[in-house]
Amino acid sequence: MKRKVIVIIAAAGKGKRFSEIPSSQPKQYIKLFGKPIILYSLQAFQSSAYTDEIIVSASPEYFDLIHKLSVEHKISKLTKLTEGGKTRFHSVRNAFEQADCRANDIVVIHDAARPNISSRFIDSFIKLALKNKNLISGVNINSTVKKVKRNLIYGSVDRTDLWEIQTPQAFSFKTLKDSYAVVNEKNFTDESSLVQAAGFKVRITEGSRFNLKVTTLEDLNLLKEIMQPA
Question: Which helix (H) or strand (E) is 167 found in, with range?
């Protein structure tokens, strides 16, 4: 039986650090080349041959906007909108609880604020995830890293085994279900930390240095230089 691939797009963040641009909307709804940032992820996963279903976790006040975008741009794989929680961890868990999956189905999590992702990369990533079950993307840290306290350097960090973690991240439905059951009350900044805390092994594959998450105005400006207008 074919394993189903459910994609959760985390879009409930308030973007508190994105304060350089006065806006009534969180960063994932700000327009980049005339398109809301979240739409790039929706279209990429819609175009993926491996994606069966998309669930978006967002603030209810943006449900109508997301629904309108899905209709206008034929995002037919979007099946559910779920209310976000107090943190990213809770928002993804809320969406996960709405997923209709079997134990070996794959759940893929992606940040709505990472618009520079292609369906080609998604297909390659999910294909690996179907083989490895628990897989995340990231890039090696190639800059010198220092330990600093009160603006004084007090040590260096060996960067040999250091990676900057990105999304998408993929796990079997059973792995995530068991992980939430074991460490349900804790808060994590990504799902790989949750899964590892529950005792499961997670593999990593090379992502892209251009897979930037929009956190600051500088990130948005960099994406404008990197990406081509759609």
Answer: strand 163-172
Please count the CA atoms within 13 angstroms of the CA of 31 that sit on its side-chain side: 7
Stated length of the chain: 230
Alpha helices in the chain (DSSP H): 37-47, 63-72, 88-96, 119-132, 173-182, 191-197, 217-226
Q: What is the pLDDT of residue 228?
A: 79
The residue among 181, 180, 175 whose CA lies nearest residue 200 is 175
Q: Are 55 and 75 in contact (CB under 8 A)?
A: no
Does the pTM surpass 0.85? The reply is: yes
Report the amino acid identity of residue 200: F
- Superfamily classification of domain 5-226: Spore Coat Polysaccharide Biosynthesis Protein SpsA; Chain A (3.90.550.10)
Phi and psi for 168 in degrees, rounded to 5? -75, 155
- Describe the strand order of the beta sheet including 135-140 as a list of residue ranges: 78-83, 53-58, 5-11, 106-111, 163-172, 135-140, 203-206
Is a pLDDT exceeding 60 seen at residue 106? yes
Segment among 20-29, 183-192, 213-222 with least mean pLDDT: 20-29
Question: Which tens digits make up the pLDDT trace of 161-193?
Answer: 999 999 999 999 999 999 999 987 777 899 999
On the question of pLDDT at 68 being above 90, the answer is yes
Query: What average pLDDT does this structure show over 2-20?
Result: 81
Instruction: With H, G, I as helix, E, B as strand and everything else as coil, classify residue 27.
Output: helix
DSSP assignment, residue 60? G
Q: How far apart are CA 214 and CA 202, in angstroms?
A: 25
